[in-house]
Known about the structure:
Layout: E1 3-8, E2 11-14, E3 19-22, H1 27-30, E4 39-43, E5 51-55, E6 61-66, H2 73-82
Antiparallel strand pairs: 1-2, 2-3, 3-6, 4-5, 5-6
Amino acid sequence: MKIRRHSESHIVELDDETTWRIFPGDLDVTLNWKPDVDLKLVRINDDACSHALISESDNSRVRVIPASESWPTKEVKTILKDG
């Protein structure tokens, strides 16, 4: 999959027409992603989400949830606090 649109730093739309909300602590990772980067969506076991987007060029990853959902506040605060 490739990035179709990434006009907002926390939202990414893929060429399969799915839209994902990026975990706040992972936003800096996406700054290195070019529009032609190949991404794969994988299921993960995480307290805050069940999916991640992984760049096939450098294996960088960001945690994501569907853009229509909101991050669970308690889990996000705990993760960001713990670093």
